[in-house]
Amino acid sequence: MNQPYRYNRDNATRVAGTTTLKDAIGQLLKTYQLQTRFNETYLEAFWGRMMGPAIASRTNRLYVRDRKLYIDIASAPLRNELVNAKQKLVQLVNKDMGTEVIDDVIFI
Prior knowledge:
By secondary structure, this protein is an alpha+beta fold. The chain contains 6 helices and 3 strands; from the N terminus they run H-H-H-H-E-E-H-H-E. 48% of the residues lie in helices and 16% in strands. The protein has a 3-stranded mixed beta sheet with strand order 1-2-3.
């Protein structure tokens, strides 16, 4: 009969000179100067997770261009609250991204 696979931690060492997949992808993005665009796309894709369902459900359009985040909000009261907390929103997004992705927020 076939034996089920059992993980052996002693044989799971990494060979010297190899890099992790995360490091390899990071180097690839830096080499081809795609890190900025990757961060912008990540921000657009995970806007709902960052801001929560209340804000995400009222966001019609969202895009980043020239380090500025453009947001189209359907709710006027929510838009007014976000305009008042613009700097906090910039800090929150950059903190969640782990790097300076945006400098300003513009409400459409």
